[in-house]
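Action item from last week, closing it out:
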Amino acid sequence: MKKILLGAAAFVGIEATAQESTTSTPNPLTFSGYIESYYTYDFNKPLNNTRPGFIYSHNRHNEVNLNLGFVKASYNAEKVRANLAIAAGTYMNANLAAEPGVLKNIYEANAGFKIGNKNLWLDAGIFPSHIGFESAVGKDNWTVTRSIFAENSPYYEAGAKLTYTTADNKWLLSALALNGWQRIRRVDGNSLMSFGTQITYKPTSKVTLNYSTFIGTDKPDSARQMRYFHNIYGVFQVRDAFGITAGFDIGTEEKSNINSDMNTWYTPVLMAKLNLSPKVSLTARGEYYSDEKGVIISTGTPHGFKTTGISFNIDYAPASNMLFRTELRSLNSKDDIFSKGNTMKNSNTFITTAFALSF
């Protein structure tokens, strides 16, 4: 009997150890999802129910629709990692219109491995862009809709990147080789890769400073025009309930493949967010976008695209993974670039309501 009891005790001990081991070692494979539905009413009432061409998110007028929905699998181990997300929605239709076949529904697909014992990773595949503080995932942004700033710089990119993060997590340094300016498949006839860099500095938990660059071309070799782009932003949590985000983009591109003169565009944006309670917040945004020569946004008008925007939104989060949002936004341009029925005008006002759920 004594031996049996000892055996039972030993078995219980082994079982407890196994359970503790299982509990302390998380499964490296996880699954998640995101759904963001919306309704936008454009007071210009576009005839085809599609918002202006430089808007890619929440771009359908007077209809309830899906902006972005995806399911994602992530694998994170000590030395290897990978992500795969399949998506649908009007954001995907607008942003990936130039991609072939099933690539139109790839939100993210990448894999990487850790080099040595330092926090140095090499990843390759399709990623969210290294440019800007706004992403396609609405819940991660302060405002309901994306700034012109974000809509007209890459949301996603494809290529390879080398990323190093310091032990104290204050510095992130990244170098990228890319297939182009928001491209999964490189432009036919273009033999040149594009390149990017990113430097992020977080001196405290309340301050984030970032500088990202892009250099390359999005045209065939026969019409090559080099593009140079700089993205600078800072996020400042001034008080526990109040934060400010400020950003500035500036880009230049050669006027032609036989002329080294440059066309320039630029855009500043400023946001302020106030948390009224753990569940309710307000955000205000001011922005300006100047692209006189139509490098990114072509209008065919005398002054090109010179547009000022303001917006105000209120957010309500009844649960940690749920967000209801409403935003009023107005854009005013130097020229008449917005259609209203069969006429053109220089302003566009619209209201957007969105519901986001993550799981």
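Closing note: The helical segments are 2-24, 90-95, 148-151.
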